[in-house]
Amino acid sequence: MIRRGGIGYVREAKPLFARVAIKGVLKGIGLINNHMLKKRTITALCGIPLLIAVIWFGEPWFTILIAIWGLLAAFEFYKLVAVSKVSPLTYFGLIWTLLFILSPHFDYATLTPLLLTSAVMLSLIWLLLRRQKEGAFIGWAWTIGGILYIGWLLSHFVTLRGLDEGRNWVFLALFTTFASDTAAFFVGRALGKHHLAPRISPGKTWEGAIAGVFGAIIVSVLFTLSTPLQLPLIHWQAILLGLLVSLFGQLGDLVESLLKRNVGVKESGKLLPGHGGALDRIDSVVFAGIVVYYYVIWAIQ
Fold first, then answer.
1. Residue 276, SS3 per DSSP
2. How far apart are CA 25 and CA 166, in angstroms?
C-alpha cells in the first residue's frame, strides 16, 4: 500500500513506476505479445543445445551437421536464383557443395585445386548437354557462385574444428556471432534511428551495428577466462577478434540481404520458425568462421 506523504510515498512508488516504465519500453520496441520473437526464442532453445553437443563431441557428427546444413542452404540458394528466371545447375551445385565441405578430411592441398578446376570445367560441359540454351552462362555463373559461397566457405568450419583447440575456436566463432546478431537486433529495434544500408536492408541501423560489435567483444573476451572453453588469447587479441567477427558477420548478413532483395523475397525459406531458412542462418556465420580460421592460422599458430 502506498502512503500519500513523505519519503515513504516516493520509496514505495518506485517499484510500481519501474514496472510501468519497463512495460512501456518493451511495448515501444514491440516485444510484448510478439509472436515472431516467441518463435525465434523457441527455435533457439531447441537448436542451440543440439549445436553445442555436436561441436563438443566433434567428428563425424560435426561434419555431418555442416554437410546437411550446407546442402539445405545451397538448395535454398538455387531456389532463390530460380525466382529471378535463371536456371542454375542445381544438382551439380549440390554435389560440388558437398564435396567442398568434405574436402578437409582428405588431402586438402591437392583436392581443393582439383575441385575448383572440375567445378568449372564439368559445369561448362554440362551446359552443352542441357536442352535450354538461353541464359546458359548466367545460370552457370550462379551455379559456381553457390558452390563457392556455401561449399567453399563452410569447409573452413570443418578445417577450423580440426585445429588444435578447434572445438573452442568454433564455439568462439558461433557465440560471438550470435551475440553480435542478438545485440544488434534488440538495440536496433529499441534505439535505432540511423539506417545502416537502407537500399539493402532497411531494418538495420548504425545503433544496432555498434551494439553488435560490443556484444561480440564481450563474448570474445569471455574466452580468455579460465574455463574449459579458454583459448590462448590475451585481452587485446580477444577484443580485436570480437570486432572482426562482428564486422565481417554483419557484412555477410548484408550480402545475403542483397541477394534476397535482388530476387524479391524476404526469407530464403521457412525451415526454422522465426529465423527463416538454412541460408538465412549461415549468412553471418560463414564470414565469421573464415575470420576466426585465418586469425588462428596467421596470428596464433
1. strand
2. 41
pLDDT in tens, 110-130: 889 999 999 999 999 999 988
**Contact by Cβ (8 Å): 281, 252:** no
Coil, strand, or helix at residue 30? Answer: coil
Whole-prediction pTM value?
0.83
Which has the closest alpha carbon to 169: 299, 60, 79, 71? 299
Cell, residue 60:
563425424
- Which residues, at least 6 apart from 113, have a Cβ–Cβ distance to it below 8 Å? none
Q: pLDDT of 38-78, one tens digit each? A: 766 777 777 788 889 999 998 999 999 999 999 999 999 99
Sorted by where each begins, the domain ranges of the chain are: 1-33, 36-58+165-301, 60-161
* C-beta of residue 235 within 8 angstroms of C-beta of residue 292: no
Q: Judge contact between 268 and 277, C-beta under 8 A.
A: yes
Pairing of strands 195-197, 201-205: antiparallel
Let me know: does 254 contact 200? Beta carbons within 8 Å: yes
